[in-house]
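To whoever is on call:

I kicked off a structure prediction for a single chain this morning and the downstream step that reads the tokens threw a length-mismatch warning. I double-checked the sequence; it's 619 residues and nothing unusual in it as far as I can see. Pasting both halves so you can look.
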Amino acid sequence: MTDCDTLVDLLRFRAQQQPNKCAYTFLVNGETEIVHLTYKELDQQARTIAAFLQKLELKQERAVLLYLPGLEYIAAFFGCLYAGVVAVPAYPPRPNRSMSRLQAITVDAQAAVALTTTSLLTNIESQFAQNAERTALRWLATDSIASGLAEAWQEPEVSRDTLAFLQYTSGTTGMPKGVMVSHGNLLHNLALIHKCFEHKPDSQGVIWLPPYHDMGLIGGILQPLYGAFPVTLMSPTAFVKKPFRWLQAISRYKATTSGGPDFAYDLACRQITPGQRATLDLSSWDVAFTGAEPVRVQTLERFAATFEPCGFRREAFYPCYGMAEATLIVSGGLKTEPPILCQVKGTELEQNRVVAATDKQESNRVIVGCGRTWLDQKIAIVDPESLSLCPPGQVGEIWVSGLSVAQGYWNRPEQTEQIFHAYPADTGERQFLRTGDLGFLQNGELFVTGRLKDLIIILGRNHYPQDIEQTIEQCHPALRLGCGAAFSIEIANQERLVIAQEVERNYLRNLNADEVFKAILRAISEQHDLQVYAILLLKTGSLPKTSSGKIQRSACRSGFLAGSLDVVMDWSVNPQHKTKFQCLNAEVESLLQQLQKEPQQGDLSGSSNYNAVTSPHEL
């Protein structure tokens, strides 16, 4: 690798040394419609956009990037870096969908400009104009800038410590938090990924992950640039609509590196037909990374068995762990070794003790290891209450230290101090990042056992229950404020969302359950892009809470599974979980079918961790 201090240096070096090498290929429809971008072309487009931003005197200002997945997004991201402007990746709002998250990001980042394409500009501007909380944004369609402007570009004064972009994660109170990622953070993490995956110039990537989240952006777009190897990209929607496109691209382009959350491998097993499998050659695939959701051994085994006749090797699986607050990857294994499994007694694990299971008990848990630390990074297991280092064999909170740990949260000094500036009480050694995940180390291997808090991870995306609960209580007047719980349960190896919500006392007698269910389903779909598995409307005052009034979500979950909650009416996609409201109103059923036809966005996330995405973070 060349010695570069910034990503600007890196792309300039590639453009000078390998100008005509194809860096990025995008499959417009996920299959045959192809566009390419060389290092020289990307450098020129970045300089063109940067020169325009420099004319607007936007140095160190924030620019929101609103692009569909594609090469225009990559050019805009580097255009910001080339201008010394802080990029804020986001996703353009869909028609008739809530603007609340995008609006919150724009306001929090104090964005001065929004970059997009000509085809999207009119609709996005009008949606912003209709929003009650407007911001003074300047809009720019980057594909309309004259290419000759590139010659006017002036190289910015940036260094390793310069802020490169803000990676926004979901906030616990409905307000997203911007993780401040510097050029130095990016280069250190890219070096870490490069070493973990053993990338070489003849490596080949295939990536469908969302480019506006860290796994898609850093792992899918920036890592190939760092390693000087090509990558073929497609949109997440193209993959979700037809999972065969993912493996078809791996087969066609002889990809060596590709991956995604656990659900992606499960989806491939369920939807790719035997006839389609017969056309695949996956023998080139030697790094099948998996993360952004808990890695399930059942999924690994099923995928390996299903696609072994196509040339897939079990040793290619690469479980890893990470989060946005650590830029991306924190730990990973040895490329040539299969995943490391640890079988422990579930009853002991519930007490934060690690005891190997030597007998076959239904309560035993098999945990997939997610590798070890690399370079100068360090992982510590710490008691989240006493902040003392945990002894071997004890589960504690995972703390991380190293140059990949980001600078903190944008304009949130108290949360930055709490999360990013932690020190073990008994050693007082180096500064650590608190991940909010629980786990343990065994022979240097990190095993993630769960989440310290209540973060919900579905389809590779992180959802804070407080955000979902707030959406629900505001969607219908019959629902009590501050008296709802959102949690997930595992159904057929997938996390599914359950809602338990108290009803206002004066609505109990004549409750229109159809209307309430419909309101909740629509609100959750529109605000969070989620499908609900079950809704329980509870008797007033019956939701489990602590003596201080805090919602006990784990108790709600246990009560749901045991059938012990005081239910007035309930609804579920599974008749087994319907008790007092067996007949689904035709209007509600029609709405559900409509919502299920709309594909959810698959995102590695925020914390993106690369394995069990973290609380309080999103990969």
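Update from on-call: the warning came from a stale cache, not from the record. Cleared it. Sanity check on the structure: DSSP finds 18 helices and 27 strands in the chain.
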